[in-house]
Design goal:
The protein has three helices and no strands. It is mainly alpha-helical. The radius of gyration is 14 Å and the shape is globular.
Length: 71
């Protein structure tokens, strides 16, 4: 997708920020709003229109940043 200077929704940085924000919101809702039920990768993938590999990469990043995360 080519970045248009007049359309922010084609800016890759903006897309990444909004994807992170929406992922955080869904995870927060899963734990706070709907109880502590696990949400499958498929459900998250469908909600954010991201490939499963996106979630695997995100989980790896979280594990690297937080020493108390399950390995």
């Amino acid at each position: 997708m080519k970045h248009s200077p007049t359309d922010i929704t084609t800016d890759p940085i903006w897309i990444a920020e909004q994807t992170d924000r929406l992922a955080g919101w869904e995870i927060l809702q899963c734990h706070c709003g709907r109880g502590s039920h696990e949400m499958s990768e498929r459900v998250l993938t469908d909600k954010l229109a991201m490939p499963v590999s996106f979630w695997h990469g995100m989980i790896r990043q979280i594990k690297r940043r937080h020493p108390n995360a399950k390995k």
